[in-house]
Structures are given as structure tokens and as C-alpha cells.
């Protein structure tokens, strides 16, 4: 469970950087603002998850150091949404931790809405 939680935390933290790059590269104001909201919010949510996990279980000492990201924001966030859904079965089942994962999923869904439908 520690390895899976570390991977989840790493992917989600890296998503802030990828979203920030996408934010800078878009020529759509709506996408620019949607991506900004995401990268400004996700780090705090992931930090909350990591600290709660470590308070309940143990300190994570090792994180993966490689990641890749899709350049097109909608495809990237669709993949991120799938990653979060798939990760749930490997993360702790404690409701307080799953509630934070719910908030992360909600942020991804909200970002996808803005990317898809706001012009």
C-alpha cells in the first residue's frame, strides 16, 4: 500500500507542473483559467492526502522519480481521471483518505468540464 500511495502522490503532484505548462501554452482564455485553478488547488489537496496517510500509517520515504504527460489538456485530464479511479482500489480504504481522493477527483472533473465546454 505504501508503494501505491507514493505513486499516487507523485503522479498527482506532477500533474500540477504539467497543468501549469499547459496553462502557459494554451491560446484559450477559458482553458488558461481552468488549468490555473487546477494547478493552484491540486498541490494542497495532495499534500493533505500525503500528511493524512503518513499520520495514519507511516512516513513515505521513497517516491518514483519519473513521469510523463500528455500535451493536450483534455486527453491528459481524461487519463488523470482514469488514473485516480484505478488507484482507488490500491489506496487505503479509510474514509478520511478516500474523502480527499474524492476532492481530487472532483477537481479533475471540474477542470474537464471547463476545458471541454467553456470557450
In summary, what is this structure?
The protein has 119 residues and is mainly α. The chain has 4 helices and no strands.
Could you characterize the architecture of this molecule?
The structure is a single chain. This protein has 119 residues and is mainly α. It has one domain (2-117). 76% of the residues lie in helices and 0% in strands. It has four helices and no strands. It has helices spanning 2-25, 29-56, 73-87, 95-117. Helix 1 runs antiparallel to helix 2, helix 2 runs antiparallel to helix 4 (95-117) and helix 3 (73-87) runs antiparallel to helix 4 (95-117). It is elongated, with a radius of gyration of 14 Å. The protein starts with a helix and ends with a helix.
Radius of gyration: 14 Å
Cα distance, first to last residue? 41 Å
Helix content: over 70%
| Oligomeric state of shown chains | single chain
Shape: elongated
Average pLDDT metric: 95
Q: Runs with pLDDT <50, length 5+?
A: none
Instruction: Please tally the helical runs, counting DSSP H or I stretches of 4 or more residues.
Output: 4
Q: What share of residues are in beta strands?
A: under 5%
The structural domain count equals 1
Derived from helix and strand composition plus strand pairing, the structural class reads mainly alpha
Number of strands: 0
The run of helices and strands is HHHH
Main β-sheet, in a few words?
none
